[in-house]
Amino acid sequence: MRRWLGLKNLVIDGVERTTNLVQETHESAARRAYALVKLVEPLEEPAAIVEELHGLTARTVFASIRLTNRAVGAMLEGGHRLLAILSPERRDAGTVLKDDGPPMRSDALGTAAWFRDAALGAVNGVVGDYLAEQGNPLGLEMTFRRHGAHLPLDRESLAEALPDATGKLCVFVHGLACTEWTWSAFAAETHGDPAVNYGTLLARDHGFTPIYLRYNSGLHISENGRRLAELLEVLCAEYPVAVEELVLIGHSMGGLVIRSASHYGSEAGRAWVKKLSDVVCIAAPHFGAPLEKAGHLLTTVLKLFDTPGTQIPARIIDARSVGIKDLRHGYVLDDDWLEETRNEVPFIPQVRYSFVAATVTADPNHPLAHLAGDLLVRLASATGAHPEPAERIPFELGQGAVLGGLTHVQLANHPAVYAQICRLLRRTPQLPTPLTFAHHRSLPLHDS
Q1: Are residues 168 and 208 in contact, defined by beta-carbon separation less than 8 angstroms?
Q2: pLDDT for 176-192, tens place per residue?
Q3: What does the alpha-carbon distance between residue 65 and residue 87 come to, in Å, rounded to a whole number?
């Protein structure tokens, strides 16, 4: 019911903003038309009168639309409150894991639960900052999840939800406009089992307990990083057994969120940082992503022309979330987006930082590989390579791999990637690596 209320609010807000945009467009076009007519001296005075009457009529019409829209919103709000009184939601206090998401299986694709969560992830990625600002129920709160459901962070609930918890904990962080379900994509095709993902494999082969994060990817990466640092402190404190080792694995934006969380956790002296052994960034745009760079460039160019045909698209594109905008240069700190410059983010000394990148070409050293990368993130950005030594992400030699013949999305769940994760974590891979790979230090250095 809360989600329906959030959807109602989003639609009502959308109608309001669209009405304002259409009115501004109409008024801009009218001003230009009447200005041309007024150039003819005999028509100047009559045109001014007609313009005033036209403006008054238009303002009345648009005001009526807004009034009607708000009235509909108020009626729906009242109906929701009445329904809540007549039929209050019942919650079973003994339920640890509420079944509020699709199962983490690739055969869940296409189900109603999958569509709902996919839509939630996408909406939060595009306008998540606005949802959070408005307090819209569609805005996702950062939560840990297990088997497609929320995982409460108290010791009793965690003990019940994780009866086989081990001292080796692995947390997975998804990318932009996604949910934790991404980690189970293509499982049936690539692993032969729809329930297999990196978490289940690490649990089976190396005794890790996997936990998955869900968050509002439309917020600043640094905001999510700070929040993750806080939640990891609670998770490790309430975990049913002593945490001996903590591994953080992020896909795409998730890798940047993890780097941010590690920095803020270390800066604040969080206890969980002492347990952190590895950070693995899979296809993370450390120097930014081409699509966001193109979006920023297009918006800048459109704003240069003072016409409705350019200003309106510019405003629509510019309404994308701050999370997306952070991906222009790979901002992971508050100071990055406040100062509009990427600052140095030192690695935690005792932690191994690794990357996994990919190219759509089978040969990672093909000239096209450096240009196209995995289609969404260029190779230099994903590997942390940069022409200027001071700008490079300081991954150690051997702490990374470039896979050939994979796309950005495929990297979230593929046997070849899992084999590399095991190698980077210094565990014995249990699965073969059918694709070629090369350590990034052997690759030419390019900017993102």
Answers
A1: yes
A2: 999 999 999 999 999 99
A3: 33
